[in-house]
Design goal:
This protein is of the alpha/beta class. The chain has helices spanning 12-24, 42-51, 68-80; strands at 2-4, 31-33, 59-61, 87-89. The protein has three helices and four strands. Helix 1 runs parallel beside helix 2 (42-51) and helix 2 runs parallel beside helix 3 (68-80). The radius of gyration is 12 Å and the shape is globular.
Length: 100
């Protein structure tokens, strides 16, 4: 299953709701596209927690979500043990090489 929420006007609260939904019903979600929604830095930590419950996820598109360095750093723990993830797009999130 693919969830395309690109350019839907989602904000920081939306990331929290999506993370909660993924935690409660992991299902067989293969890809999520949240690109070009202003989710903000806190979304990284919220999505990291959700990734623990989305074992089938192969693609995560977060291009232009306003994550910044704090958001990317917050997302990292969720990515570290996620064996099925093959595609991760973090372009245009306002972070430099120091983000890890």
């Amino acid at each position: 299953m693919h969830l395309d929420l690109r350019r839907c006007g989602l904000g920081p609260d939306s990331a929290s709701l999506l993370a909660s939904a993924l935690q409660r019903s992991p299902g067989r979600l293969a890809s999520i596209d949240l690109s070009e929604n202003i989710l903000g830095p806190e979304a990284g930590r919220q999505l990291a927690r959700a990734l623990e419950h989305a074992a089938s996820l192969e693609e995560l598109q977060l291009r232009g979500c306003g994550l910044g360095e704090a958001g990317v750093t917050g997302l990292a723990p969720g990515l570290a043990n996620h064996a099925s993830l093959r595609v991760l797009n973090l372009a245009s999130n306002g972070f430099g090489t120091s983000a890890g």
